[in-house]
């Protein structure tokens, strides 16, 4: 367990020290600090009424087509993939799309529920997808600990996961997910291709300012969520639902409820708006 702490580093620097979870005794209503007092919290519901068509420059995903080694870990709250910092010059990063900086991919993790129709954190028109993937990126020009406490220091890409009969997204991770149901277990995955976690259409996205969806719920997080989902199979959902917490109980659900917008505007960039701008 000693060298396991290293895999918490990303969260350890920013997360609250208290034990939190998703059960009645430690779940979202009991979370403290910014989770309780924050006014720009995530996740949110996306609806046309609060959306503003926007045209950004193209959002670019670099080295997402490079395969590399990741460690997949059950950290008691989620299944998390780490190790991109060992990819050297091939560490995936993003820029453009209205982002002010270049951001390195540092980890991805998943949210799901024991119920197929409530598994995503964000919702569209009040409806959930079956699961949601978060690709966490950190400003490339700052040390990790500084970036994590700087507004706009972290940007998260949210990808909805719809229930499908086939999924190219998690196929390469399925065997690993099957082996890490016990808290603290970790499996190395070779030849992992980040591109498989992106939807076909990455030119249309929602953009808003929010927070981490887990304690300490730090604000100043730039969110990009694609309306276009990737897919997850029923078998893959079953494997996720086997995950156990530190206490050994079934994690079951790791979804934070929808948070109030409090006047925030969600920007929506899409090819459709681009074509309007181009032709008129
Ligand atoms: C995965 O974890 C092991 C330690 O268990 C470590 O030696 C290795 O560097 C890690 N791989 C990546 C890609 O982070
Ligand atoms: C799943 O969630 C939906 C929506 O909240 C609800 O209507 C349904 O009864 C739930 N299904 C189960 C099996 O709990
Ligand atoms: Zn998340």
Automatic annotation (TrEMBL):
Cofactor(s) it depends on: Zn(2+)
Record family assignment: Belongs to the alpha-carbonic anhydrase family.
Role description: Reversible hydration of carbon dioxide.
Keywords in alphabetical order: Lyase, Metal-binding, Signal, Zinc
InterPro entries documented for this protein: CA_dom (IPR001148), CA_dom_sf (IPR036398), Carbonic_anhydrase_a-class (IPR023561), Carbonic_anhydrase_a-class_CS (IPR018338)
Gene Ontology annotations for the cellular component aspect, listed alphabetically: cytoplasm
Taxon lineage: Eukaryota, Metazoa, Ecdysozoa, Nematoda, Chromadorea
Record flagged with keyword Zinc: yes
Catalytic reactions on record: hydrogencarbonate + H(+) = CO2 + H2O
Stored Pfam families: Carb_anhydrase
EC number(s) reported in the record: 4.2.1.1
Record protein name field: Carbonic anhydrase
Record-level Gene Ontology MF annotations: carbonate dehydratase activity; zinc ion binding
Signal peptide per UniProt: 1-19
């Amino acid at each position: 367990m000693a060298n396991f702490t290293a895999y918490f580093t990303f969260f350890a620097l920013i997360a609250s020290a208290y034990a939190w979870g998703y059960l009645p005794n430690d779940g979202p209503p009991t979370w403290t600090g910014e989770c309780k007092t924050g006014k720009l919290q995530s996740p949110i519901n996306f609806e046309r009424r609060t959306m503003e068509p926007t045209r950004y420059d193209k959002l670019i995903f670099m080295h997402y087509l490079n395969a590399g080694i990741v460690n997949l870990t059950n950290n008691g709250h989620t299944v998390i993939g780490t190790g991109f910092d060992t990819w050297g010059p091939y560490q995936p990063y993003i820029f453009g799309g209205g982002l002010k900086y270049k951001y390195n991919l540092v980890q991805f993790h998943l949210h799901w529920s024991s119920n197929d129709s409530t598994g995503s954190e964000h919702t569209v028109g009040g409806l959930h997808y079956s699961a949601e993937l978060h690709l966490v990126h950190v400003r490339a020009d700052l040390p990790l600990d500084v970036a994590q406490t700087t507004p706009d220091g972290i940007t998260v890409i949210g990808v909805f996961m719809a229930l499908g009969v086939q999924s190219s997204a998690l196929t390469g991770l399925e065997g690993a997910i099957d082996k890490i149901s016990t808290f603290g277990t970790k499996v190395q995955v070779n030849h992992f291709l980040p591109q498989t976690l992106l939807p076909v259409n990455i030119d249309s996205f929602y953009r808003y300012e929010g927070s981490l969806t887990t304690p300490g719920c730090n604000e100043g997080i730039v969110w990009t969520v694609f309306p276009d989902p990737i897919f997850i199979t029923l078998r893959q959902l079953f494997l996720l639902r086997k995950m156990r917490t530190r206490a050994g109980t079934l994690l079951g659900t790791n979804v934070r409820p929808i948070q109030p917008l409090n006047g925030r505007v969600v920007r929506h960039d899409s090819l459709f708006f681009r074509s309007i701008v181009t032709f008129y």
